[in-house]
Queue: 3 jobs
Job 1
Amino acid sequence: MKTKHKILSVLSVGLLVAGCASLPSVSELNSLTDAIVKASFRSEGIAHVDRVLSPDETNRACSEADVSGKPLDEKTAQAIEAMNLKSIRWPANGQFLGDWKEGEKIAQSGRGLTWTDTANSPNGGNCYNCHQIDAKEISYGTIGPSLHNYGKLRGVTDPKSEAAKPIVEYTWGKIWNSKAYNACSNMPRAGHMGILNEEQVRHIVALLLDPQSPVNK
Amino acid sequence: MKLLTALAALGGCLLALPALAQKTTSQGIDEYRAMLQDGNPAELFEAKGEDLWKQKRGPKNATLEKCDLGKGPGVVKGAFVELPRFFADTQKVQDLESRLLTCMASLQGFNADEIAKTPFGKGEQSNITALATWISAESKDMRFNLPQSHPSEKVFYEVGKRLFFQRAGSHDFSCASCHGEEGKRIRLQDLPLLTKNPGDGVGFAAWPAYRVSNGQMWGMQQRLNDCYRQQRFPYPGFASDATIALGVFLGVNAKGAASVAPAIKR
Amino acid sequence: MQTRRETLKHSAVVAGLLASTGLFPQFAHAAFNKAAFDAKTVQDALKAMGPATLAESKDVTITGPDIAENGAVVPLGANTTLPNVKQLLILVEKNPSVLVAMFNMSDSIDTAVSTRAKMGQSSDVYAVAITADGKAFFAKKEVKVTLGGCGG
Amino acid sequence: MADPMRIRAQASGDKATVRVLMSHEMESGQRKDANGKIIPAWFIQEVTALHNEKIVMTAEWGPAVAKNPFLQFSVKAAKAGDKITLLWKDNRGDTRKDEATVT
């Protein structure tokens, strides 16, 4: 109830302002939005309310840029990318590639981390929701670019070779933390946010880069 | 029986043929959707909603026929395409479902807080959905034209815009991640661009809708609730200001779009 | 077309009719053909229905989408131009039980029905017409069932 | 008691097309609840259609008919003003009967 009163008072402040000017200021609207978010969302199952109450710097900057309709300035974008790049955890055992067959299963699954999921149910990668991957799967999304022939197009014939190393590392990094390469990418930060574990990321890298994977056939 | 076995084997071969071309897939799905248009089970909920509107119910044993949905007490036709809007009696911006909650409390004596806490599809919540289905049907083919004259309506539009672009949750998704660009899909589902009028009967202009996948009738509140669930956000309260502000943003953007609600959806 | 209000009014009357038994003694069906509805294969379902012969026929048509966006609701229709058709069946080969619906025809209706079926996966779907002399004729087509959205 | 059916019967030429929507769960008997227990099948098993009180069709359905079932058929020699009646009975013995007038 207390929050409700607070919100009403914030709103009426906004309205008083609106009485003389056309609209409350941007910062007033921002804090009103914060108050409304706080009053409207609650924790449910594993989806704790902190998920909206404390956005990290990356999300805060990108949301604000989206609202304004202008992309981040170059300097901020670079700073965000550098920060995210630093957070990438590289494979502890030095192995970047797992089993592409497991990778395909993870790419197919869109499950995990909603308030109807449980903490111990395995998370999927959501990959096919946005990307074409194995051409045999006709039900794929188009929010992200097609990943069909991902390794082949990049000339990866032996992922263990020195020549393939930059692509292998980039692929790992992009999956682990997409924002390291594109500050306001639409892609989730699968490793960084704890969506996929190291083992799962290895399998996805294999799906994309293993010459035996149907992606490269 | 031999023939049947032979044919079954042939069927197996057909299945093994290379994947259908993309164009054929979307044409096939359009054909499927067209087949479902005739005989939308939403009609069952529409009939129930009309009955509920006129039925004496609740502790006060009253009908909803004096409920003001924004165009005066009892006026149903055209109300849907102007919601959410500001209501002077509650001093709040309300969408169709939160307004129905107000009417059920004030006219019929129901406990609004209790209904708001009831899960979707249960008890009085399912009645609100049926009522919303009928009320939306009474504005079928009319064009969205949400009022933006009251300062609160403008403020809610601005708040809704911020919510639309709010990146959060474990996956950094905002509404715009999926609905911020033209011509995109999730899997095979086309995603309407919701920062402008996406066209007649698309996006905001298609709910309430009957969901084929689970055989449920969903109002806009449940639609937004499930978007947030899939966005990996925490739970938005029923009729909360966040859901209503988002509704104002989507509804104002949809200005001019003809409503097809109640629709039938995958 | 009749209005919704009339339907509702009728149904109140009707509730009473159903309660006072015997108004529609015809509603007492022949016993539900459990064996046919439990059958796991098209062949077994037909065996349970009785006909001795089965042949594909151009005079039988199955209608349905090439691709169903969702297997929970797949519109399927059966119709035939054959004379003396006693029953029309709709079957989905890869469902746990293949028989979806069985319709007993009469001279007063066209030998064409449509309904909507659940499908667990991509499968062949069948329309079967059984004639008065105990012969069965079928048509079939493949219906692909695609995955849903986010899977969540 | 179950919710009413929606029946539309439209005359065209010398027959009437009848479209019916029924309100029913049509539980398949294949699904499990949160505790992993099978939800028992619950479905409309028998359907009867009458034209002016004369039976024109009966049907037997299994649980694979979709939730909130749709049914379409055409009645010969039916004209505007005629009565179309539908009855169903489910495997729990619940029944429903609704009528419509051909238009």
Note: The first strand of chain D starts at residue 6 and ends at 12.
Job 2
Amino acid sequence: MHGMTSIVKTVARIVVGVIFLYGVYIITHGHLTPGGGFAVGAVIAGAFILLVLAFGSDVLKLKVREAGSSTFESISILAFLLLAVGALFIGTHVFFQNYLPKGKVGELISAGVIPLYNIAVGVEVAAALVTIFLALVIYKEEVK
Amino acid sequence: METILAIIIGFMIIGALFALHAKDLLSALIACGIVGYGLVICFLLLKAPDLAIVQIVVETITLIIMVAVVLDSSRRELKEKASIRVKGISYVNTRYVVNIIAVILFTALLLFFFSESIDVLAPFGQHATRMSTAYIEHAADQTGSANLVTGVVFDFRGYDTMGEATILFTAVIGILTILRIKGKEK
Amino acid sequence: MESLIVLYIILPLGAAFLIPLIGRFVRFFAGMISALVFLGLTALSIVYISAYHSETIRYAVGGWQVTNGIPIAIYLVLDGFSGIILVMINLVAFFAVVYSFSYLQKYTAKNNFYALLCLMVAGMNGVVLTGDLFNLYVFMEIAAIASYALVAFGVEKEELEASFKYQVLGGMASLFILLGIALVYWTTSTLNMADASRILQTFAGYRIVIFIQLLFIAGFGMKSALVPFHAWLPDAHSSAPSPISSMLSGVLIKAIGIYVLIRLFFTVFSITYEIALTITVLGVLSMLIGGVLAIGQWDYKRLLAYSSISQVGYIFIGLGIGCW
Amino acid sequence: MTLYILCFALFLTGLYGVLTKRNIIKIVIGLSVMEFSIFLFLALIGYTNNGDAPILVNGKEQLLFVDPLPQAMVLTAIVIGLATNAMLLAIAIRIYRKYGTFDVRKINQLKG
């Protein structure tokens, strides 16, 4: 896959950092402001897709990245499940109970497990979208 | 408010019809984008900022993937013609005309049945909450989340969200399975 | 003992999430863990049937209590009927895994096969156990998407075509069902099945209820290969790997089609004469057409698929007559 | 009520596309239009006149909110729609490479 012109590359290099920063902002404030795990996942995946489209890459490198992102995905969704299962052993022993202290409404560290779920889902969605995109690109490159 | 929404939905219907009838697949995709982004504006008007954010990014990524699929194909669609030509004389293609009449009749029938059957339900803007009354009243003190949608998605109905993350995982495994180069070992 | 009910979801999902991570390094991990999970769940279902056959177990996920007389949590419900279906799902899945050990020799990407099978079983278990309409949709989609990918597992021409047909019809069916669920929410403002049935009683005989019921018949009829909507089953059945064929017509069309329809029509809606007649007529058609079309088949898998369609017809006749 | 009927008309437009079009990409577009109409439908159901977006803001007195439950349902359904679309497109690209066309009339190895 070929990259694009140096104008696109330069702009992409600057913009990607801003997009990541925006993603991190929404994910940490997911329980306070609009947005949350899904939006962030898609935003970060968009940044990755921008990088791949702008700079281009050979198939071998893309394959390494695909393996990495699918591993990330499995780990993060497993973390989500473990967070939910953890409720079976803590507190009142009910599946999906919010077992951490709730804190004060409107503060950054509040709402118990919700921010953790948010982060797990965010990473999962981002990794999933990146894997889907890379799988399509690799298939198109390998089978002509 | 209702008029603006009605106009936007009207545009979305026109966009959808254009997308389904465009000759070039790329312009069909762009027209499909009209429907998707019109939906974003509707979400904003309907006081659903979470949905607007998610829809706008998801729509963009879907468009990128769809364009990537379409871009190196021939992009042309084989059309069914309204008239056929046999030995220099042109006849009206009866199958085409019958199709159009059937579609119009069926649509009118379904729309009529739908509009007749929904007249007992709550009109637009006068929705009465039942299950979500508790979600609205107790979200702040029982989940600690200031964003009620996040509270519902991750706490009251976190089980649904786990299912949804699982669906994305399933789709990824499925796509990796479908797009592997060799299906069988020789 | 009641709280073990969540294992039906956790164990297959956990296995499916672990397989891509560990299966790469340990050779027989995928097959062994899925066989163990399904065997364990079969045993658990048998214990449930024998110990709790006359009572219903309810489990509120998240521990949310009933407030102002309205259930707000997602409930998992296990009664005698769902217990039997659970035994069936997990037992057939166990045998499918045991058979795949040798069947999969010629295929690549074995780990993905087992992961998808685990996800499909998790989806079906979730559908059978849930007492919540939207949750039903979510888990139905897990099972459906896993089965789309499994039908195309061989990635040859026929498999891809069958999977595409199945996806389009299945996707349409899912959207009909989602529209039906949205209409139920509009009518009742609740998603809990027991609560919704209480409110729908005040709407008995209205056209909106008939509309919702028709949407559900169309949607779940497509999922269970009832006759006007049966086109996908023979193709999918004959193209899929053999273990998946057995899962498809053995449990998938029953668990996410017929079981849900029975659950909805016997517990949530009150049935009018016309709807019961519609179901019965569709069942008779399905029985006849499935049987007649089976005569001309020379491929054994297609023959069996048409036989399944015919059997689905018998089940629907029973459902229709039982509703009167 | 007009809004709901328009929304159902959008649903029927998508259904018409799925049932009559013979091109894989057009079928995918039809399915996504049907999806969009249902998302809109759910969002319309949850709207309350003069209601606020369901977010608590410190120091502001809010009494009436839009129903958050349909919004949560749409949030879930959007991602499900993305997953189904991606699966369909993966199959579509593979079919295109095998047959050289998106036309379903030319893709008929299986009979019946």
Note: Chain A has a mean pLDDT of 83.
Job 3
Amino acid sequence: MTNHWIDIRHSDCILIMGSNAAENHPISFKWVTRAKEKGAKLISVDPRFTRTSSKADFYAPLRSGTDIAFLGGMINYILENQKYYRDYLVTHTNAPYLVNEGFGFDDGLFSGYDSASRKYDKATWAMQTDEAGVVKKDASLDDPRCVLQLLRQHYSRYTLELVSSITGTPVEDLRTVYEMFSSTGGPEKAGTIMYALGWTQHTVGTQIIRTMAIIQLLLGNIGVCGGGVNALRGEPNVQGSTDMCVLYHILPGYLRAPWADAPDLKSYIAQVTPKTKEPNSANWWQNYSKYIVSLLKSWYGEAATPENDFCYQHVPKLDTGQNRSIMNFFDDMYAGKIKGFICLAQNPACHVPNANKTRAALAKLDWLVHANIFDNETASFWHGPGVDSKKVKTEVFLLPSAAFMEKDGSLTNSGRWVHWRYKASVPPGDGMPIGDMLYRLVNKLKALYKKEGGAYPAPILDLSWEYGDGKGNLDAMSVAKAVNGYFLKDVSAGGKDFKKGQNVPSFAMLRDDGSTSAGNWLYTGMVTPDGKNLAQRRGKSDPTGLGLYPEWSWCWPVNRRVLYNRASVDAQGQPINPNKPLLTWTGDKWVGDVPDGAWPPLADQEKTMRAFIMKPHGVASIFGPGLAEGPFPEHYEPVEGPLAQNPMSGQRINPVVKLFKDPIDVYAPADPRFPVVCTTYTATEHWCSGAISRWMPWLTEAMPQVYLEMSHELAEQKGIKNGDKVRIASARGQLDAVAMVTVRLRPFKVQGQEVHQVGMTFNYGWRHPKDAGDSANLLTPTVGDANTMAPEYKAFMVSVSKA
Amino acid sequence: MSEGKSIIMDTSRCTACRGCQIACKQWNGLPGTKTKQTGTYQNPPDMSYQTFKVVRFAEGKADNGKPYWYFFSDMCRHCLNPGCMEGNKKNEIIQDPATGAVIHTPATKKLDYNTVLAGCPYDIPRQDPKTKELKKCTMCLDRMRDNKIPACVKTCPTGALVFGEREEILKIVEERVAKLKQTHPKAKALNPDDVRVIFIVTDDPDRYHKFAEA
Amino acid sequence: MSAALTPDQAASQVDQALDRLQTRTPALAQVVSAFRGLLRVQAEIKAGLPALDRPLPAPGDAGRGPGRPLAGVADFLAVEDLDLPQHLSQALGRILPELERGFPALAPVAEAIRSALTAGTLALAATLDALLGGDRARLEALAAQAGVDAPGLEFALLQAAKPFLERRAQALAGRLAKGEHGGNCPLCGSLPELSYIQGTAGQRWLRCSLCATHWRSSRTACPVCGNEEQAKMGFFFVEGQENQRVDHCSVCGKYLVGLDLRGQDQDPVWATAGLGMIHLDLLAQQKGFSPAAALPWNRLV
Amino acid sequence: MSKITRREFMAATGMLAGGLALSSLGVPLGAVQAYAGELSKAERVKMAQTFISTCDFCSVSCGLLISSDAKTKKVINIEGDPEHPINEGALCAKGASIFQESTNNPDRLKKVLYRAPYSTKWETKTWDWALDTIAKRIKAVRDKDFMTTNAKGQVVNRLESIAHIGSSKMDNEECWLVSAMLRSLGLVNIDHQARV
């Protein structure tokens, strides 16, 4: 989240779209209620009328997979009705930037598309620059090549009528939602967006969020209290696990994984470090080299020296642009190319799309290591439905794990607050924390490689691994200190002297000469030089009264609670909304939240820095060339959608999305055999794949079996009554469930024809309880977002019939 | 009659988190029954001799054409003069003098279930098929005697369930209904003068539950 | 606070509470009967007192800052609607027979105080001022002057003054800042006599051993020394009586008895609450912990 | 505690009055001592400790107070942390159910289980055997399939025949350790719940 949970209470208008806070983040709804008690308006936009919708001031339905059309219409509304916050646009975004003449858009494609490789050559998406390389700008925002005019031109196509005929949302509802939310444009009011997997799990997922970011920038809602772009993340530590980059494409601290065409550290640093000629741009990522070297020092300690590029060669390199995300390596597993699979506290047999393919792939493994606190469909795949155990060769190691209250460690919530959690109990029987398993396993691997040698043993032998408590167990605190990072020699920095071995207090003091280590630069500052862990703090003070609680736990980066908060002040450093003073310049320093850098406000032309310090030019991107499918989000139909053509353009689906070629990866768009749009979601009473909550007796009493929610109109058509057993089939698989015929789902009028929509929970699996039903992901397609490959669980086609 | 205890069940604040349904089971030691998905979020489907409280889900089309979804945390109303007592032979069904709670004692196994049920306008009493005893919510009389508040009220996170002296509760009901009327003209309290457990609704009562109002 | 009780109502409320306590824990019968008279009389005296609401002077440095109690001794004792020395001597007059009946060993002290009162050698206001100000030497001098054994005089005078101190604190409670305070009473600076958990959020409150003020305190820090290291703290309770507990801390070696009032319909009768847990006091002291504040009924070992 | 000047209250009650032990006041304590002794003998006195934690379901991270028996370490109570500014003591129905994730749930995995190729059942194993065997399996595959260079001859030092996922149910320190371990082994097939 750019803001945090308590900050929601400051909002004047809350849009809950692509999420269902009342059911899936119930306590966050407490802060929505506080905002409503102060007069805020709550809008719920969802294909289905949920418990969140039942508490909203206004509810609007939309067909799954049409969020960009819906939000594109809002951009058009904001521009046509002059609802945007002009000074904010000129000061903090690239709205005034002039784009190259070569850039264009025609019939669904931006300039530079190569249909053979299904990729864009982004050369034409560059800005016009003067001889000194500074971008040309038109602060009056009138020049036809300036970003704002190109934006206006692009979204002028998103008329209310066309958007309504794509989303199925009545025109009147669109207008009401657009008016309610765009009323937060300007300094006095702030609007916030609460989104979750309802937005990320589409082939255009990243661009949906980009569309909302553009809206929030147009209205001046970023960097202010009650504003921001806020993801309600699902798992308890998904923010922490993402920060620590257990992901193929990034190293801890979001440092891009090295590619094969960067043979040494220097070429890697040159490839990843952004440059800018813009004046007053902090371009914070220019410090990239300090973070990668400090990371390598934390991994390889003494062995990492300037002479050997700090062990840069120990880090595996991807082929340029190679994608090794979960659907890709399950594809390899299905083709028998993967021999070993380590799966910790996760249940892919239920939550990876096309479960038949996933479960068949597991059977191709030589061995599977699985650690969890309960058994589940993954660990027991070899005796699943329709599986002959005697034919499955895979060895399976099922390791009993400690639950969260049976170990010490820290967790980062959606609002980037890091909490330390204390061991309150012991695991049952031989249970062991996963950290201890890893600690012992690597020690055994080091011993094996020391004794027997083997392929390139150096990375294993050089890995620093002194994280024991002296009694053979893991000491989590020693890991937290390594993640924070150390001074590796005596040094004086920031006007103070530090000894070798002391923890570094801020990432501004990290160096790329090997004199500092940091396992994750974003977490530097969590442990103080005298070894105090700030994530353990419980201070209740809130000097600004804005609910920042600066002394409660610690939040990255450097305890800043609202990101880009310099955008909340004017050129003199005074808050643009006086009754929510997030930040104030007192003449020589900032007061309030931790500022995005200590530089003086914009009025001090010489020493100031622009607000968006993580962006190379210091301004936010209305025109965003960084993503794969275009600088402006464009509506494309889901890969498996109901329509043969995209009403918006000649491009039916996202032109750069990756499609899998194996016969089992079939897609059936606009196929009469599968006429009904389907989406998936979780129930309040269960959690994710249900691998934990399905073992809790009175949660299964309240929500016993998988069900399909459908409209009365569809039920009548199929002769289905409420409570009947129905069979849901897609081109990939089928599943039986109980029909829940409801008014909370209605057919959509799309392009003049009636399109039916259904929805079901993905919380169930065959392993437990016995008659609960199996996973909805038997139906979902193997296709994902063009930038992240987050699977498109939220929009695919099925048939529904009485079972 | 404003002595004794009273409870508010304010449906406008209820988010159907079902904490009350589960707390009632835990306090009264009632087993988690084996349930089926019958096409509704409401489970277990109805009250029984093992389920004294059920959160009812009711949906339909509002006047503006949009759906509505109401949640009704159903329980015995503990009437001021209980209809179920008409089925009494001696005093198998009693009314606790201090709190006003209506209690079905084990002696109810001698009563004719249909007569007792007929007396209740809210369809609350249920019969244990084996022991024939009548079973229902006791307003947590045991907790109240230990001057504790009922288990369902204690666990409600949104303030939808409130417990207290009947006098104060009637005042709170009035304030809440007055405030709700500003945005929901149909807001009202159900049978406040006849029952101790007073439901507040913001739409026609029968949209919530057939037996919502007497 | 519930509507003001008449002296008789206050006394019968204490009686009923002590009866309930005795039926629930028969082993406390003798201790209950020892304290019954004293607690009844104190309840009557308190219910009969006027408002005592003379405002404090503007908060000088003494009254501000964390850990600094709001009221100094002089300001606390300065009231307009009561003649304090006369009230104290009347209160003593009613307390002494209860002390004699409940605590046989105190008979000689009671006698000495009565004769000092009639002889006019006992400067009540000065002695109370010395007692509250913690001036041992002056207290012992005044006791000697009155011919009364010092610990006995302090015990009797404190029990006689308690109703006044509690009623006066009630009048000043409005001046306390909201939110959490540490282990010391924000009004008079004394240590707590018991803690309790109340409200759906499960917040912890402390009750002052001297002026009966209630204030909110953190549930995860030691109420006496503020230690926050969980591993160094603990609590114990008796199976079946989960709503009574003892929180103890190995950093300061202190313990505090406590009640879990969540789900309770009304507040307990505070004056008798501590007495109902002296078996827990005994268990705590047997485990080597000492009470946060010394109370008449908790010096057992 | 800060210095309290003489003119302010000290813990007056701790001064002299403390000197008068109940027994010295002539109050018989036999019954109370017997009762306390009986409770201890019958082991009805439960020693416990409370620990600070946060909920392990969604990413709001509501504050929890977890109490466990000091001897058996079994969890006896989990409730909302009243001081936590986000949930202020409140928990949703799922948070309140997290008690059943502790050892009080009989279905928790307790043994290291191993399923041999083509077998139809689990066998129980020791930790040492399991971790030794897993280390050997990893080394065998790594030594065989380790790629020093790719098809174009560029140095890559990677291993494509082992994959890993998991997990956002693990603590930050565990996630960092697994990230370091996997990169040292040369793995590139790395993912977890953040993407699905």
Note: Residues 166-183 of chain B form the longest helix (18 residues).
